[in-house]
Amino acid sequence: MDVATQAENALQVISTRLRDRRLQLDYSLRQLAKLSGVSPTGITQIENGERSPTFYSLFLIAAALELPLGELLEDFL
Q: Is 51 exposed, middle or buried (CB count within 10 Å of its CB: 0-12, 13-18, 19+)?
């Protein structure tokens, strides 16, 4: 598997983990946006794999979800 495919797979897994955690906490997109400072549109794009998050936005979203980055990225470190 080439590096680009690995990166795409990682993004898909990370996006799913973020969405699953948001739903587990019963947060709406607007609630998460307010807590994280990332727009609802940006969160939707990240969760749907339409946009690669910057480290900064990933950090903000994970912190708002009380999800340690190590746990979010554990399969890729």
A: middle
